[in-house]
Specification:
The chain is globular. Strand 9, helix 9 and strand 10 form a beta-alpha-beta unit. The protein has twelve helices and ten strands. By secondary structure, the chain is α/β, with parallel strands linked by helices.
């Protein structure tokens, strides 16, 4: 790995633990004003000191994060569809690499939609993005999207998607946690981080998911709603950090959450 690529990746996946707590706030790129992200700045700012990296679009970066902040940016560069449109998977590359460099990003992120009508298009988007980003030393995060069909989050589908992302040159991949998650890790030669998915019933549930994922080989989380849709987002991200970086059990981490709250 070239120096710039390695350096950028090390800003996200911390060499001390080999793990990361990425904060995902890119949801508006297809969901519009998501619950608790309507005023993105007020949600993001208190959480910044506890995030290893921030995943978002250029629009929310420019309007809602001060450039003086020392936070690695993972820039979402795919989109083009909305939750009310015909097909969520009909995505293209929405941001050029010149813009990514101008914004001093540590990585760029793009969704692939395996098994959909736009599978080929989104996989070729990934390959093109790797071709554009690699010469600049910028890592590419591939997101294994499932569109509206959350039921697709099983080991067979996610292993397939993660492996294809790695084969096409992604630097790391974001997927969902599922039963037999270790099988996804075993067959994927690049680091995997997990998305949180829709808000779970309790914070304890989300901590357990993060714990099980890292125990089975994930390099951390790229979590959004289970942090900032919690009534206590800062205590929650502190607890997630304890699980990911300190290897705490869900019970121990939940005590941190309860105390900090
Ligand atoms: C979804 O399309 C976005 O890429 C999110 O960044 C991702 O789903 C992670 O956020 P959450 O933990 O809320 O699922």
């Amino acid at each position: 790995m070239d120096w710039g690529m390695k350096n950028r990746l090390s800003r996200i996946i911390k060499p001390e633990t080999g793990r990361t707590v990425m904060l995902a706030v890119d949801h508006g790129y297809f969901l519009g004003p998501t619950n608790k992200l309507e005023d993105a700045r007020s949600t993001i700012v208190p959480l910044l000191p506890y995030a290893d990296a921030l995943m978002l679009t250029r629009g929310i970066l420019r309007t809602s994060v001060d450039p003086e902040k020392d936070i690695p940016i993972v820039l979402r560069v795919s989109g083009g569809s909305s939750i009310i449109g015909k097909d969520l998977s009909n995505e293209g590359i929405t941001t050029c690499m010149e813009e990514a460099v101008r914004l001093n990003v540590s990585a760029v992120a793009l969704s692939i939609f395996v098994g959909t009508d736009y599978e080929s298009q989104t996989l070729r988007n990934l390959a093109s993005l790797v071709d554009l980003a690699q010469p600049l030393g910028i890592p590419v995060l591939a997101v294994t999207a499932v569109g509206k069909e959350l039921g697709k989050r099983d080991v067979r589908f996610l292993s397939l998607s993660c492996r294809i992302a790695a084969e096409l040159g992604a630097s790391y991949v974001k997927t969902y946690y599922c039963d037999e998650f270790e099988k996804i890790v075993e067959s994927c030669p690049i680091p995997i981080v997990i998305a949180g998915g829709p808000k779970l019933e309790t914070e304890r549930d989300a901590l357990e998911m993060a714990h099980d994922a890292v125990e089975k080989g994930a390099a951390g989380v790229d979590m959004g709603r289970n942090i900032w849709q919690s009534p206590h987002p800062v205590p929650m991200i502190k607890a997630v950090r304890a699980v990911v970086h300190q290897g705490m059990s869900p019970e121990e981490a939940h005590q941190i959450f309860a105390k900090s709250k």
